[in-house]
């Protein structure tokens, strides 16, 4: 089960694939929140997706608990160290349980260490997750169980989607689920103007439905030629196709940026309150812009430098230069991971 944000779901999928490879006859069920159902359902390794609503509310979490309690499993795994995962794993009906099962720690997962534990049996190895890259959280559960996780690409089922434009465009995502990870809109607007004035590329600004108004606000007054498009609320298969065909992806440390890693797509990542050592792309050729301050990384619940926050240190010019370098490298030596 993985009830955290899109990035955590993305990095849990190789572990789920490892379970299927080790136990091909097992029926693999994965519990995720509704927005991530489409992504997980594309995985041949997953036989069944159990979809929950928004579990960040007590009502939503209780509803999913009741739903899961109606099931019976042989093995229940919590794949990342968040309390909702742990709680759901502990109350689920299963003879054996493994993963991150502690419900008591309130400190953000990336600022603490959490032990992989088990109920009903002894683990093959002791594993501890903390201050590690996000991609290792779920894989450490596999290692503790004695399974190996391959680093190869994951195959997905094909999905119908609307036709996408050619690859003469940049995908740009300055928003994030965490307020302090977003790139300020005035800087994002300057970057858009720089792309239009100094390159022949179009720009597709992406976001979810709640970000559509701000995305359109960014493009307003910047472009009179139609080279800036806004695509908000895309289904996961459409978003994956859009990203894979783009000349480049530029975005904050958020779900779409993590999808690039799943697709093997080099990207320009804009980092501030979270360390790129924890969530930065490991795809060859990717670029990261990060100006570490005395308060980095932080818990992202408040900012002690509101007038000079970490994301404000990233300038439109350096993003534009870095994006050009990435595209130039891909033209000279195309990445085998790009679709």
Q: Pairing-aware structural class of the strands and helices?
A: alpha/beta
Percent range of helical residues? 25-40%
Mean pLDDT: 87
User: Biggest β-sheet, characterized?
Assistant: 6 strands, parallel
Write down the CATH class of the largest domain: Alpha Beta
Radius of gyration of CA atoms, rounded to a whole number: 20 Å
CATH superfamily of the largest domain: Glycogen Phosphorylase B
Q: What's the shape?
A: globular
Looking at the structure, the CATH topology of the largest domain is: Rossmann fold
Number of strands: 13
Helix-strand string: HEHEHEHEEEEHEHEHEHEHEHEH
Cα(first) to Cα(last) distance is 28 Å
Into how many domains do the coordinates divide? 2
Q: Walk across the major sheet and give the strand order.
A: 10-9-8-11-12-13
Assembly state of the chains shown: single chain
Describe the structure.
The protein is α/β, with parallel strands linked by helices and 339 residues long. It has two domains: 139 residues, Rossmann fold, CATH 3.40.50; 164 residues, Glycogen Phosphorylase B (Rossmann fold), CATH 3.40.50.2000. The protein is 34% helix and 17% strand. The chain contains eleven helices and 13 strands. The strands form four sheets. The chain has a six-stranded parallel beta sheet with strand order 10-9-8-11-12-13, with helices on both faces. Strands 3-4-6 form a three-stranded mixed beta sheet. Strand 11, helix 9 and strand 12 form a beta-alpha-beta unit. The longest helix has 17 residues. It is globular.
